[in-house]
Design brief:
The structure holds two protein chains of two kinds. By secondary structure, chain A is mainly alpha-helical. Helix content of chain A is 76%, strand content 0%. By secondary structure, chain B is an alpha/beta fold. Helices cover 33% and strands 26% of the residues of chain B. Chain B contains nine helices and twelve strands. In chain B, helix 3 packs parallel to helix 5 and helix 4 runs antiparallel to helix 5. Chains A and B meet through helix 10 and helix 11 of A and helix 2, strand 6 and helix 3 of B.
Chain lengths: 330, 261
């Protein structure tokens, strides 16, 4: 069956369980009946699954997959095992965008529920543009990382400033910053799906180049890879995928950093042809599971999904790390 | 004539690294670039690879300006082998040698075609790395790593192979084995080889022609026997060795005098 089949099966089971748990528990068989549309079903169950839980679970899967995939790309391009999708300022940029949207309420009547996602997406793209402009035309690893630090610091300062002057919306902002999938409907899925899927496919077609980058910049040039152009394209796609994910879910940490390492250790290769799709699948599994837990752990209260990803992921990863040698990292 | 460099110059800041150098290289030749540290030989090589820009002059590869080639097209003609071993990476030897097929890949999908796999196989058999194919780079010795680098370069099926002191970190056994393999490959595939070497004796044994560089200027160029003379070595390296004729190969060999009295 191989890892691919195993991950797909696990994803299916996790999705099913995530659809079945919640404020009113639905048996697994009823879940399958509903989503595969066979047999007669309770219209109430139909409504809960199709209107409420399924879009939410789909968004969690897409965001988890996107963040993990982006994490792989950042770690490979920046040759840094500590790189994650937020390292180039995308996160703080989108946070500033979201907070401006929440506190200022610009265009709220026109954009309605899309106001926060659109503002945070614009913020993320702005931050990325700043990083790329600062780092210059050669897209060197060192200057990229440093520009990321600078831009992150600048946007974090703006964020703190905005938080300090807005008293009324603090709770709402806090909840957005910690990440959440509450009240996401199918429109959100349609918002994320095209960018996430097309980006993933384009990136996967560049697997060979990503593999060759492991040799280093000069050897890659001698093999015929146009290093700077490819690196720029991959960075932009990874950042767009991250931006769109963050704009609908807030800042969910840990997935983009840990899942790529987790998958590398599991499948024992750094071949991006496998690493990219498998990371997408495992990221989706992880975030769907974490979101389900965040809903049921302290029912009826919902806790931020970022809390679950860190509390769940850190111990699992620690055990795995202990069992393998440091040489398999990177 | 496969490489034609016309009056190429390269300047770093105020320092002239290469001073209007002319080079003609015929197909299937082995040319060695010799000279002391800082004479500009590695710079010259990376200019010939097209990875450093020259400030004036022109380099033609097969009659076409080197900077007119697209990356992939150039990599089909020129492969580059450096003294630095490949970095520690988690990939297997086979995966690394497969990267050499990148310029020849026509499919958009990230998988190699059958004929490409065949070339990779041959490159690994030729360099005796086939038994290491499933090992990771970090598990290999220095000599094994350099053979993997060679397999990677040969998998490109280059018409021109550029070597930048490829045996610096190898012991004398591996140095000879390495050059023997390259010579064999050259005879079989009519490859043109240009090497930057420190070891004058190895250069004399394996290359057809030599270029002597000093301070970015071409001192002399020609057949090994004409170039490796007492005068030339004294002028470029500033040493006074003893030069003998190799009893079997009839090429000059250099003996160092040791401590001067």
């Amino acid at each position: 069956m191989g890892w691919g089949g195993f991950f797909l099966l696990t994803l299916f089971l996790t999705l099913s369980i995530a659809l079945s748990v919640g404020s009113s528990s639905i048996p697994l068989v009823a879940v399958w009946k509903t989503i595969f549309a066979f047999g007669n079903n309770d219209p109430a169950i139909n409504a809960i699954i199709w209107k409420i839980r399924f879009p939410r679970v789909c968004i969690a899967a897409l965001v988890g997959g996107s963040l993990a995939l982006a994490g792989v790309i950042y770690q490979s391009l920046l040759r840094n095992p500590l790189a994650d999708p937020y390292i180039l300022g995308v996160s703080s940029g989108s946070a500033v965008g979201a907070v401006i949207a929440i506190t200022g309420g610009f265009g709220a009547t026109l954009l309605q529920e899309w106001q926060i996602p659109i503002f945070s997406f614009i913020g993320a793209v702005l931050a990325l543009a700043c990083v790329l402009l600062l780092s210059g035309s050669h897209v060197q690893v060192q200057s990229l990382l440093l520009s990321g630090v600078v831009v992150n610091a600048f946007f974090a300062a703006i964020l703190t400033f905005l938080l300090s002057i807005s008293q009324t919306e603090l709770a709402r902002i806090q909840f957005w910053l910690m990440g959440s999938f509450t009240l996401r409907d199918w429109d959100y899925v349609l918002f994320v799906l095209p960018v996430s899927c097309m980006g993933s496919i384009v990136v996967w077609l560049k697997s060979t180049e990503l593999n060759i980058f492991l040799l280093g910049t000069r050897p890659a040039t001698h093999i015929g890879v146009s290093v700077y152009r490819t690196r720029l394209i991959l960075l932009i796609i990874a950042s767009l995928i991250t931006s769109i994910a963050v704009s609908v879910s807030g800042m969910i940490g840990f997935v983009g950093l840990i899942i790529p390492h987790f998958v590398r250790i599991l499948i024992r290769t750094s071949d991006h042809r496998y690493l990219l799709p498998y990371s997408f699948l495992v990221g989706a599994i992880f975030l769907v599971g974490s979101d389900a837990l965040s809903r049921v752990l302290f029912e009826p209260r919902e806790i931020p999904v970022g809390v679950v990803t860190a509390c769940l992921g850190a111990p699992i990863f620690a055990i795995l790390l202990k069992k393998t040698t440091a040489s398999t990292l990177r | 004539m496969i490489i034609h460099a016309k009056e190429i110059s390269k300047i770093f800041g105020s320092q002239i690294v290469l001073d209007s150098i002319d080079i003609l290289v015929e197909s299937n030749e082995w040319v060695s670039i010799l000279g002391p540290n800082g004479s500009g030989k590695s710079t010259l090589l990376s200019c010939l690879a097209g990875s450093s820009k020259i400030d004036s002059g022109k380099i033609e590869i097969k009659g076409k300006d080197i900077y007119q080639y697209a990356g992939k097209d150039k990599a089909k003609i020129i492969a580059f082998l450096t003294q630095e071993a490949l970095p520690d990476m988690p990939n297997t030897v086979e995966e690394i040698v497969q990267m050499g097929r990148y310029p020849h890949q026509t499919s958009r999908l990230p998988w190699l075609q059958k004929q490409d796999m065949q070339v990779v196989e041959e490159a690994m058999v030729f360099t005796e790395t086939i038994s290491l194919r499933h090992r990771q780079m970090s598990q290999l010795s220095g000599g094994e790593r350099q053979r993997v680098s060679m397999a990677l370069a040969l998998a490109q099926q280059p018409e021109i192979l550029l070597l930048d002191e490829p045996t610096t970190y190898l012991d004398v056994y591996y140095q000879l084995a390495f050059f023997d393999l390259l010579k064999k490959w050259q005879k079989r595939n009519k490859t043109t080889i240009i090497s930057v070497l420190h070891d004058l004796n190895l250069a004399s044994l394996y290359s057809d022609r030599c270029l002597l560089l000093r301070d970015g200027k071409l001192i002399d160029a020609g057949e090994v026997t004409e170039i490796l003379t007492l005068d030339n070595v004294k002028q470029t390296y500033g040493i006074e060795p003893i030069i003998l004729k190799h009893p079997l190969k009839k090429v000059p060999q250099i003996l160092l005098k040791g401590e001067s009295e």
